[in-house]
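Appendix B. Raw example, untouched.
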Amino acid sequence: MGPENLFAHAHHGFLDDVEARDPEHRPFEDFDHPFFQADEVEYKDAVYVSARRALQRDRWDEWRDEPGRITGAVVRATMESENLLEMRYGDKGNSGRALYMTQKEGTEAERAALDAELVHLFDGPTHPDAFGPRFDRFADYLRDHRLGCPWDFLAFLAFIADDEQRYVPIKSGPFQAALRYYGDETPLMGRVTWEGYEAVLRLVDIVGRWLEPRYGPLRPIEIQSYLWIVARCVLPRFDGRVSVPKKRKEWATELARREAEARRRERTGLKGERFCYERERRRLTEADRGTLAGDVELVSITGTASGYDLLTFETDGTERHVEIKTTTERRDSGYGFWLSESERRHAERDPAWRLWRVWDIDGDPEVEDLGNVVTSSSGWSSEPASWRYAPTRDAGNGES
């Protein structure tokens, strides 16, 4: 069975699990799902921020001559880890026991040596080609000095080291299961290596690309949280047989999907209208037409049936009545747009009417003035898209 079917099987289990565990049993429609965010993502974001603050990296240079100060800062960072590290069994049983043992039982030379290794790990570029060798060197140091080298500790340090948040916390058991489910036999259980950690990062990237068409671009920590649920709650029930279930008729799910799509369209439209409004006020102000800039009006939010969205002006005071059609697509997509019959009729009789197309509103917005596409004789084709039906006065009501 191909990896896409494996993904579909696991994803179906993920959707069921989140909805079942959510106290309000809300279907999972996107990665802003309140229960998923609260239970899996938000605390990890908070740990990342608080742990990096505890590191006090800006002071490490002045601490280099004070053995144990840098290690102490990393100790404080691990104390922010919540459940991302095992912290229940005393200093010698914790995931970060190398730090505690060196701080409490090590000699000054041992504390200075661990400080130096931590500086080497954290200093320098954190892109994989540069960080990977430093990751392996630190793991070797811990093993060579019998300080313990558990997966969750090394992954946590990688997680908080990277400014770009490319790295994720892991525990070896669940993520080994996830790798094997998708056919990757890279070993995690046992020896900690960058090769093993990179296999997890590769899986995060692959699964993210499978999720993106449905949910848009996702952050690595969101994909890690997704895989954690799959590994802990879905794969233990996996019996080796992959069944891709038929799409279920879930009316609540479909209603939520349609409502979310309507909100997305409304958001896109409003963002485009606001962008044009602010752009026009700025243009007129920069042209020393401050009075005209003050008269620019986003009439679409007043509730009036004006037949256009934005009232603006040329610098000579000529009015422009602008209908704004906004998309998240880039200009080279060439996609068309919809006009209502009311908008079309208004365009036919209003000489000041024109249409602006706002492209890529969530990226690098660009406004294209298309003029009056209704009265223009070239460059556009149109076709009726819907019909309105209403009962005649004497239909079915007994009137003559």
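End of appendix B.
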